[in-house]
Amino acid sequence: MESKDPSANGKSVCEPDFEEKIPPGDDRLRSVCAKCGFVDYQNPKIVVGSVAVRDDKILLCRRAIAPRRGFWTLPAGYMELGESVETGAMREAWEEARARLTLDRILAVYSIEHLSQVQIMFRAHLDNADIEAGPESLEVGLFAWAEIPWAELAFPTVNWALRHWYDTREEADFVPFSNPIERV
Ligand SMILES: [Zn+2]
User: Which residues lie closer than 8 Å to 45 by C-beta, 6 or more apart?
Assistant: First the structure.
C-alpha cells in the first residue's frame, strides 16, 4: 500500500478536496483535505526592504504598480522561496531601482497584522549613485531628509522606517525597532 503521509513534501498527496475544520490538537480553522488529511497551513508573508542611503540622501521609488501606484516607497518586496532576507532585500533594490547595496544591520521588524505580513527592513548604503527605475518603478530618486515627500508615501511602514532610520542615523549600534505606538 502506498504511503499516505499527509506531511509528505509539505504538499497534499492527492487531488485535494479541502474543507474548513479544526484539526485534532489544533485550536483554529484550517483547510484540511477530506480525502488524505493534508492541512494547508496559511502563514504570514515576509516583506524585505531597506532604507538605503548615499551622501545622506535616501533612495525612494515611485510605484508603477498597484497598490498605491504613483506613490513613493522604499525598495522592498516579498521574499522569494529559497533566498535569505539579506539576498531578498538586495534583490528588491536591484529590481526596483537598479541599485547595488551594502547592508548594514536590521533597522526594524514590523508586523502588519491585518495583512498577515511581516516586514524586515535593513539600514543600508548605496554602493554608488547609479540608480534607474526598474520595471516596478515610475521613477527613482535620492532624497535629502528635508525633501522627502511625506504626503505621497505609499504605506505607513515607509513612514515608520524613515523615521526610525532618522532617529538612529548616527548610531552604530541600536536595538531594531518594531511597530511604533500610534500617536494621534
Ligand atoms: Zn488529500
Answer: 78, 79, 116, 117, 118
pTM of the shown model: 0.88
Query: How far is ligand 1, taken at its centre, from the CA of residue 17, in Å?
Result: 6
For the chain, report the end-to-end CA distance as a whole number of angstroms: 63
Q: What are phi and psi of 13, to 5 degrees?
A: -100, 5
How many Å lie between the centroid of ligand 1 and the Cα of residue 46?
27
**Domains contained in the chain, CATH given:** 8-40 (2.20.70), 45-167 (3.90.79.10)
User: What is the CA(4)–ligand 1 centre distance, in A?
Assistant: 9
Which amino acid, one-letter code, is at 77?
A: G
Task: Mention every residue, 6+ apart, whose C-beta is less than 8 A from residue 121.
Answer: 48, 49, 50, 51, 74, 76, 106, 107, 108, 109, 110, 157, 161, 164
pLDDT digit string (tens) for 89-127? 999 999 999 999 999 999 999 999 999 999 999 999 999
